[in-house]
Design a protein that fits this description.
Number of helices: 14
Shape: globular
Mean pLDDT: 95
Helix content: 25-40%
Strand content: 15-25%
Structural class: alpha/beta
Number of strands: 25
Amino acid sequence: MRTSPTVLLDATFPRTLDSIVAEFSDVAWAGGRLEAWVFEDFRARDLAERALAARGVRARIRSAYKPLIHAFLEEIEPREPMTVGLPDGHAPRFQLEAYPLAALTDVRFTGQGGTLTHAVAGMDVFAPNRVRSGEALSPCGWVRAWRAGGRSPERDAPVVTEYEALFDAVMRAVAGHEWGPSEPYFDTLEITVEIPGIERALPWHDEVMSTREALHEDLYFSLLEFFQRLSGRKPGDRTLRPGQIIPEIVACAGPAHVRVSLAAHRVAPEPAGDAGDLDVIARPLTSGEIATALASLGGESFVHRSVQGRPIMGIHRRGEGPGLAITAGQHANETSGVVGALRAARRLAETDIGFALVPLDNPDGYALHHRLRATNPRHMHHAARYTALGDDLESRTRPPFHEKAARLEAIGRTGAALHINLHGYPAHEWTRPLTGYLPRGFERWSIPKGFFLILRHHPGLAGAAETFLRSLTARLASDPALRAFNEAQLRVWKAHAGEPDFPVFDTIPCIVAERADQATPYQLITEYPDETIYGEAFRLAHTTQMNTVLFAAALLREATLSSGAA
């Protein structure tokens, strides 16, 4: 029998923009001037300015989120080249926050701004920030107000917006609940939010400014961090199994509302489907389409079950050459690898190369991603990244393995020398504005840098690994579309993040790392910026994933990799 959810919080928060208009519409402020910063889009701020003008108040209401980019979009007439002086003492953070300005205009960054102020084109661009209870410097609301005839502002201080207040209320509600002594602490922790905000695409690849997406990220990862502390684990420990944390953020035009509840897993029937020609698919596949495409490959099938009972399906096609295992969808919001793996397997099935394939490692996360995309198709949805237990399946080291069992069988069946593990990462900027702006523990992935490769190897195999990567990247970079994409992304990445701390082979960033505890002598991990992309961008992504598998399989066959003592 299905039980009713346990509600931890059900609260409404007045809209800060409405509160500002109400306060400064008072006759006492007539003839005065107002500057304010809130987490709202241009149209809402413009309407508020007009309402205040009708009451005799000259108002300028700006975005508290990415104020420099908004200044260029709304107030500054770009000239090329331009110099931007970054706020004192925090230049690296604000240079990243300025992304993707270097893609929109010819700009040079210096450390010659003021306190929380950018200096650009003779104009000071204020960046309202405060240190939030033990956290790093974080964007916040702010109000400056002058009475009629006043030379100095009567008020010049942070203001707690509904955006900030709602986040804090969720964290207090979770911290105040009596959690049990063992994991998982719940089936699902659902945080349903209705809130105004910013959703603005920028003319650079898949870039978008979204306060609702950022709130999803802040809530999800802050709650993971809370449960890591509760369990006594270190920050970033991926063995944590709190349960499935689900922030679902939708737009509204009035007061913000949040409901936090504990509920049972939702498991709907898996739909059937046939995507047709995978070569031209322009969006993520459904689970039914994945099952159909996998069944068409033939071979020996095997199946395991996820925590929520969904099938994790694989096939094994026997053949010649060193063992090869291919997996995708470990992080279920990274969707291009699923298509790329199936396309590559179809071509490998026409050869005598033996391989095993698990095209979707994490079906529970994939089902959640499908659900969240229905409301916000352009958001990253990192809540779908891990399994229904809340852990990263790769981190499991002892039974029951659940989702990991399928890839272990794929590796065991083939005796794999090489495991190709197809991944992705955000196709636009990843931020956590209420906890220091940059995504803590994932700072390297905060802005895109093109298609990226990681090759992990057993001890003693570093030389062979680098030789393999150089050969692989040379073949991949022969695709002019991929080369142009990576060159463009790396140029902007360097402008905002500085020179890379990783090698770049043929326009493709790479990392070679020793990993003694992995199941195969070599594990090749792809990282394509695919979270949120569709259309031609998605086609290039899954074509690149496919080519990586095919080229790596060919190089393995050519004995570029040696399995060493394995």
